[in-house]
């Protein structure tokens, strides 16, 4: 059963499922930002440092199992520039989203439940 399916059922494992979902979303958002930062640090600074200014405006929030990433709209257009040799938006974000979906769908195993239960000191057996 996936983490999302567990949340649909009203049972004692909901708290653990929410923790797992938040953990996956947090890790995914951090990976997106880390990869963008890695690409930014590996390039030669431009005269006006537009990319740095654009990436400095991004942030994310996680609330009730929802990841929201906010960024300057210009970040989307960096990828669209045919002359630009760097891709900092679509490829990074969609590949990480794909990983998050896979983890949410198949990664909520009994072993993960036990680890989170022990970390949170919860008795889910009743």
Task: Describe this structure as you would to a colleague.
The chain has 126 residues and is mainly α. The protein has one domain (3-120). The protein is 60% helix and 8% strand. It has six helices and two strands, in the order H-H-H-E-E-H-H-H. It has helices at 3-8, 14-41, 50-55, 74-80, 90-106, 110-120, and strands at 59-63, 66-70. A two-stranded antiparallel sheet has the order 1-2. Strand 1 and strand 2 form a beta hairpin.
Query: What is the overall silhouette?
Result: elongated
**Number of domain units:** 1
- Give the rounded overall mean pLDDT: 82
**Rg estimate, integer Å:** 18 Å
First and last CA, distance: 20 Å
Largest sheet: 2 strands, antiparallel
Uncertain ranges = none
What's the tally of helices?
Answer: 6
Please specify the SSE layout and strand pairing.
Layout (H helix, E strand, L loop, with lengths): L2 H6 L5 H28 L8 H6 L3 E5 L2 E5 L3 H7 L9 H17 L3 H11 L6
Antiparallel strand pairs: 1-2
Helix pairs in contact: 2-5, 2-6
């Amino acid at each position: 059963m996936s983490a999302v399916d567990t949340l649909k059922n009203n049972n004692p494992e909901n708290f653990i499922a929410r923790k797992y979902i938040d953990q996956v979303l947090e890790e995914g958002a951090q990976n997106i930002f880390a990869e963008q930062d890695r690409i930014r640090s590996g390039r030669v600074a431009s005269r006006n440092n537009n990319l740095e200014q654009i990436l400095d405006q991004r942030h994310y929030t996680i609330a009730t199992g929802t990841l929201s990433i906010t960024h300057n709209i210009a970040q989307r257009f960096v990828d669209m520039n045919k002359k630009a040799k760097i891709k900092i938006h679509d490829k990074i974000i969609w590949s990480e989203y794909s990983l998050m979906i896979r983890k949410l769908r198949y990664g909520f195993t009994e072993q993960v439940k036990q680890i989170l239960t022990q970390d949170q000191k919860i008795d889910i057996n009743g």
